[in-house]
Structure formats: structure tokens, C-alpha cells
Amino acid sequence: MMLARTSLYLALAASALAVPVAQAATTDIAPASATSASQPVKTDPLYTYQWHLMNYGQKAIGDTRPVSGIDLKIDSLHTQNVRGKGVKVAVVDDGLEIRHADLLKNVVIGGSKNFVDGSNDPTPANTSDEHGTSVSGIIGAVGWNGIGGRGVAPEASLKGFNFLSSDVDGLENDQDTNIRYSWGNGREAKDAEVFNNSWGSAAWYYPAVDPLETASWEKLMSSTRNGKGGVYLKAAGNSFKTLSLFGIFELCEQDTRDLNIGCSLANTDSLNNLFTTIVVASVNASGKRASYSSPGSAVWISGLGGEFGFQKKYYPDTSNIVDWAKATFYDPAIVTTDLTGCGAGANADRDDGTIENALDTSASPLDKSCDYWGGMNGTSAATPTVAGVVALMLGVNPNLSARDVKHILAHSARQVDPLQPKAIYKGAIQDPGWITNAAGLHYSNWYGFGLVDATAAVRAASNFQSLPAQHDTGWLTSADKAVAIEGVGSQASKLTVNVADNLKVEGVQLGFTTTHEHPRQLRVILTSPSGTKSYVMPAFSTLTDTTGGFAVDLTSSNAFLDEKSAGNWTLQVLDMADSSATAQLQTFNLRVVGH
Predict the structure, then answer these.
(1) Sign of the dihedral through C-alpha 192, 195, 199, 203
(2) What 3-state class would DSSP assign to 5?
């Protein structure tokens, strides 16, 4: 499994892409654990630039102003002492600078793991490994201490697990083993409650997946938090407009971009299809899909990840920037912590004198320490905004199960970009935009159930009655015979699976096999017994030809939440480019969990 961090770095070559406060509205949140918070004496000088926390249309690090109201809806939670106090968050990444002045107070001493040297200090030795430190600041930078900004959950407890450290690359290691260690198998991870994973694998194929492996991951993830299940947040990916091999060879074709399909789906990362994972997409400061954010029916929720955060005053020449990024190049990114000092991290003094924005380098008029930066972006940045909200939720109700948290996030999310355009090819829908399922929930392959809403989620969490015990249909196989894969407009090319259990759906996984060797041409739709259609694979994303036939061992759809499971589930596979019907849809497997 080839893994990568999921923030974006704009390479200086067109061939590569490496992104006074208004009074807050009051809420009626009154968690039992909260005490009356005294008025803070100190402020956080960079807080005003953290539009993701409070957005009234103020100036940001970028040339465009954020659209007022596009924020996490923290509102008065922090002033009501809802700050995620003591909730342990594992940052599974490339490291965590535990002595950073804006993080140290919240770091669990001895609670981290360095996979390079075996110690409990994951502070990066490599000066380019700032990613995990930036993620940590979004989640839990200390508030009201007179420096920097603050986190979504400014009193959460942070643990770092550096399985993605640059220095690990040359060691004999098993990434899966290190991930499992970080996800609860390891001593330092056993008491973690929230697991932030701002990384993933963007692929031009669906990897082979053993059902026993899927079960093993889900068993581990469900066992943490004394059986309540850890909350595992996972980045959707940054492959809407680009998918490259080794950062050199562009694999995404222009027609994919023209159709607005997405170069690679979040579903191609098998870990994103686990029932125990919450996959996070990214929204920018305008309240729209961030330019890079990977789509897919595996997406559950959206956080705020921004765009690229450059400013023309400092970086006026975009001639060497990839074309698709130019439209949002000067739009705000996220302000967060960086590796300390001007010789390390993303914000560092550069030999060529390049400056990206007003918070960049020791020449910054805002902060000359280089301990913070204003260019953090990607679903890497969006994921910790949701992780921070989850910490706030668990802070008011530690008895919530992971399933409860997932349910609350979906039901409390707010719809953004309601006019999301459909993707259509020759009259055939490839992505329908927002749909409303049979249970009345809005869902989008771009946004999941919508943008996370901290106040609504915390309010729901504070008195939530836990979901009933979960039931699992297990893998069910279609008894239908193989059918021909026909072309655009066909009503055939379908296999069905009958589900006898009448569950309230929490999640759906599926797999199928074909004899088709050109998967890029295939559109795959799953239809529930209630008639809701989920476009689990649009045609013309980046999928390479497959000798012997295309197969998907594991993909998923969240579009059916709260529908009834009983009845016939129908899978249709059509060829959008060839109507000769020479290939076949051979098998269809389905698994549903619910209560």
C-alpha cells in the first residue's frame, strides 16, 4: 500500500502539484462537565486569520475574503468551556513537535511513538516533516496564551505517531503494522479516543482486498475505547484535478477534468471503505468543494481545508503553477502551527528569497518566528477540523460510541453548495450532485452529508441516546446469472442481491467482477430497495486497463443511511463509450450493517 500525506504543495513547475472579532451567537449547550469560564486575559494574535473557527468575512491569509458564515460553527462553545478537555487525540502522521510552545501544554508526555528510534518523542528530525505538527495545531493548539492561533479543541490531549516520517522510508518496516500500532495495538495508542489520519493512497485501480483483512481492521477499530470504538477520521484525498505517478507522470486525462468527475475517487483507498472509518472531504472559504478534494460515495462528512493561501503582493507570478490551481491560488488556506524556527518546516527562509504570503518567512509583518504558517490545505487540513469537533463532542459526552459519533455528524451536518452541478455525459448522469435518500437525508459524493457543524453536533451529543446494537448481514452474493454490459441508455446490465434483514442502514459495502478490460468506460450504480441510486463509480475517472477483466473487491456507499435494508439491492454496470455488449457483469456481493 503506497501512502502519502494529503496536504497540497504547489511545485514550481507546471508538471507537478506536490494548498476586532464579531460577537458570536450564543447557544444553549450546557454540558455537565463545563464550569463557568473566566474571561481570558490573553488573546491569540493569529486567531483573526483562522476563518475556519470564526468567519465574519474578515481579512485572511490570501487575497480573497472568506464568505461570512463559512466556518465550523464553534460559536460560543469555547467561551462555555467546551474545549475538548482531556480527550486524547492520536495524530497518525509524519511526526509531532512536542515542545512547540503552542502545543506543549496539550501534549501527553510519554504518550507518543517514534517508529524511527523507538522513543516516545516523535519530533521530526527531517526539516520537511512539518505535516503532523500542522495537523496537530488545527486540532489542539493551546488557546488564550498570547501566541499564535488556537485549535478547534484547544484543551484536547495530543499524541503523535510518526509512521509517515521521511526517516522511516529507509528502514525495514511494515506500514500496516505501524498503522495498527497507532490505531490501538500499541501501548501508547491504547487510550486514544480520536485518531486523525491526514494521509491515504490515491490510485488508478482498486486494490485486491481479502474479506478477512477488512474484518481484522474493523475488529481492531471497534475494540478501542473499551469497546465503544475509537473515532477514526480519514482524509478523502486530493485527486479531483490531478493524479500523478511518482509526482512526475500525470495520469488524469483532460476529459475527466472537463466532465468534473474527479481524477481518482476516495473509494480507491480500501481503508476508506471500512464501516469504522469516517472519510472527510474538504470545503474552501467560499463554501464550495475545495479544488483538489477527492469525491466518492465513501465520503461521510466535510471539514474546512481551504485553498492555497498565496498573496499577489508576495508571489505575483503564477506562470509556473499548474493551470487548474490558478483559479483558487490566492484564496485562503488554513493558519496553523509549523515546525519551530525559520530553518525548518513549510514556513522557512528560502535560499531564493521566495515569500508566499504575509505570514511567510522571518520577514513576516505578522509573526517573524516562522512557528506558524498560512498555507496548510488539502483534505489533510479538513480532516483535523472534524477531529477537533469530535473531541468537543466526546468532551461533553464521553459515553458516545464511535457509531453514535458517526450518526451525529451526519445528522447535524449542514448542506453547502446546494446547487452542485450534475456531471453528465451523452445525457447519462455520472454524478447527480446532491440527492435526497428515502430516509430524507441529503447526500453528495463531493460533500458526504455536508459541512461539519460543531454547535449542532455538540448539542446533539450532550444528551444523545446510544444507537441500538449493530447487526451485520455478512457478505451476500447475487444468485443471478452473468449479464452483458450494455451501453448508454440501457435499462439492463443488472444483478440483484436480496437482503432479508430489515435493518436501519448504517453503511453498505459491495464488490463485483466483470470481464471488461477498460474500466474507465464503466459507470456503476447501486440502487436500494427504496429506490435511492448511489453513483459508486462514474465513468471516465482514472482507471487503467485490466487484462482478464475488471474487479472491485471492496467499495462502499454512505448514501443509504437510515433507509431500510430489506429487499432487492440492484447493481447496474454500463459502458459509456461502447455499446457492443461484449463484456459481462459476472458477480455482485453486498454487505449491510445497521440496527
Answers:
(1) positive
(2) strand
Which stretches of 140-198 are assigned E, i.e. beta strand? 157-161, 194-197
Evaluate if residue 153 carries a pLDDT over 60: yes
Q: Which three cell numbers, joined as nine digits, stand for 196?
A: 486523525
Would the pLDDT of 173 be above 70?
no
Q: Show the cell assigned to 202.
A: 490515491
Q: pLDDT of 477-491, one tens digit each?
A: 999 999 999 999 999
Q: Which residues contact 52 (CB under 8 A, 6 or more apart)?
A: 71, 72, 152, 304, 306, 334, 385
Q: Which residues are catalytic?
A: 93, 131, 380
Closest by CA to 46, choosing from 350, 376, 322, 323, is 376
CB 590 within 8 A of CB 534: no
Q: Which of 255, 261, 236 lies closest to 433 in space, CA to CA?
A: 261
Q: Which three cell numbers stand for residue 392?
A: 468537543
Give CA–CA dist 223/230, Å, rounded.
8
pLDDT, residue 247, reads 77
Answer yes or no: are the C-beta atoms of 147 and 200 closer than 8 Å: no
Cα four-point dihedral sign 352, 353, 358, 363: positive
pLDDT one-digit tens code per residue, 424-434: 999 999 999 99
What SS3 state is found at 409? helix
Q: How far apart are CA 71 and CA 517, in angstroms?
A: 44
- Residues 565, 473: contact at Cβ < 8 Å? yes
What's the rounded mean pLDDT across residues 104-119? 97
Strands 522-527 and 567-575 turn out to be: antiparallel
Nine-digit cell string for 200: 491515504
Q: How many Å separate Cα 367 from the centre of its chain?
A: 29
Listed in sequence order, the residues at least 6 apart from 258 whose beta carbon sits closer than 8 Å to its beta carbon are none
